[in-house]
């Protein structure tokens, strides 16, 4: 196989780095250039032709196996290592980055959505890609993206949790695709325009399924949330980081509605997500002359980003430059969160 890089040194030859630059290695006895190292090795062990054929056979076998696994849309090629080595810089022989398609496979996003610690993080990453990175997705990255998205939707339809989160993700993706396909043009996205139209129809079908979902009441008749003391109910509600969840919880029962309107509850929620300076710029007084923390929260959400916290995230080690999930990385390494 010819060398396709920009390096002017041919592979298979012996070169020595000197003060004047790289020079061909000379045989001390004959004074001629050494074209290969077979003269120094046992011919039976280092048969060049047999070695070349065996390497070609191994590469071809691995390629056929990978192509067979990737031949179907819903089948992915999985790696045993759940991490990616990120090079510090690019050279002529290697690139200093990893593609999204490679990250989807190597970091095992399909299994990550089944972990409650990673689910929200993966959904947030998919949302960021849907907003601004669709045009940079390669063919394999598009396939992996849609496969993971399908698994996310099926999981939500099965366990009936995080419905609003996935609705927002699908709406964001559909809006981005409408802009890129209809207004900008088909040349912006990689792939056939009919394939993207089919994917948009699939997204609409998923949205319809989520809209028609009926929450089944659990058959368990033991202790419920409303049976707990009020102080415990309020303590649990303080653990919710989204104000819309508090509003939804208050619509379940009249007693919960009273707790969901607690001023201290909304004050702590505002102080958790926003700084004091941001809060002072968006003060709202109620009819009684007190601060209306609930209205302030929803106004602050429209003006500033909320604080985001996840149970497990992707981390990049500063020393070994390994990109992996946080709980898989050694505690002794120095980490930088990617998100």
- Radius of gyration based on Cα positions: 29 Å
In one word, what is the shape? extended
What is the mean predicted local confidence, pLDDT? 75
Largest sheet, order of strands side by side?
3-5-4-6
- Oligomer category: single chain
The biggest sheet amounts to: 4 strands, antiparallel
Fraction of residues in helix: 40-55%
Task: Provide the structure class.
Answer: alpha+beta
- State the helix count: 13
Give the gist of this structure.
The protein has 339 residues and is α+β, with helices and mostly antiparallel strands. The protein is built from 13 helices and six strands.
Describe the structure in your own words:
The protein has 339 residues and is α+β, with helices and mostly antiparallel strands. It has 13 helices and 6 strands. The protein has helices at residues 48-69, 100-106, 109-112, 119-132, 139-159, 163-184, 193-211, 230-237, 243-250, 254-260, 263-273, 276-281, 293-303; strands at 15-18, 21-24, 83-85, 314-317, 322-325, 335-337. The chain has a 4-stranded antiparallel β-sheet, with no helix packed on it. The chain has a two-stranded antiparallel ribbon with strand order 1-2. Helix 2 (100-106) crosses helix 5 and helix 5 (139-159) runs parallel beside helix 7 (193-211). The longest helix is centred in the first third of the chain and has 22 residues, at 48-69. The two termini are 41 Å apart. Mean pLDDT is 75; it is low at 1-6, 33-52, 71-79 and 330-335.
């Amino acid at each position: 196989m010819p060398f396709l890089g920009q390096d002017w040194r041919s592979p298979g030859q012996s070169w020595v780095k000197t003060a004047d630059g790289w020079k061909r290695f000379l045989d001390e006895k004959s004074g001629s250039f050494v074209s290969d190292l077979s003269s120094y090795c046992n011919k039976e062990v280092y048969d060049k032709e047999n070695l070349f054929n065996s390497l070609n056979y191994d590469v071809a076998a691995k390629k056929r196996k990978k192509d067979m696994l990737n031949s179907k849309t819903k089948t992915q090629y999985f790696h045993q290592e759940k991490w990616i080595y990120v090079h510090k810089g690019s050279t002529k022989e290697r690139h200093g980055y990893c593609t999204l398609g490679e990250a989807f496979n190597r970091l095992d996003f399909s299994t990550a959505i089944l972990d409650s610690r990673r689910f929200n993080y993966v959904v947030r990453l998919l949302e960021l890609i849907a907003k601004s990175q669709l045009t940079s997705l390669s063919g394999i990255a598009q396939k992996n993206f849609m496969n993971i998205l399908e698994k996310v939707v099926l999981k939500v339809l099965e366990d009936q949790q995080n419905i609003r989160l996935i609705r927002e993700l699908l709406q964001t993706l559909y809006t981005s695709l409408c802009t890129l396909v209809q207004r900008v043009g088909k040349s912006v996205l990689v792939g056939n325009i009919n394939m993207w139209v089919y994917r948009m129809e699939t997204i609409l079908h998923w949205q319809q399924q989520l809209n028609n979902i009926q929450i089944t009441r659990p058959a368990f008749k033991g202790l419920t949330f409303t049976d707990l003391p009020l102080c415990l109910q309020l303590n649990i509600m303080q653990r919710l980081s989204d104000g819309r969840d508090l509003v939804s919880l208050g619509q379940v029962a009249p007693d919960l509605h009273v707790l969901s309107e607690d001023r201290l509850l909304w004050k702590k929620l505002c102080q958790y997500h926003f700084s004091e300076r941001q809060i002072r710029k968006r003060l709202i007084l109620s009819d009684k002359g007190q601060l209306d923390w609930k209205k302030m929260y929803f106004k602050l959400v429209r003006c500033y980003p909320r604080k985001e916290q996840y149970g497990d995230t992707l981390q990049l080690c500063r020393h070994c430059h390994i990109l992996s999930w946080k709980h898989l990385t050694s505690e002794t390494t120095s980490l930088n969160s990617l998100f």
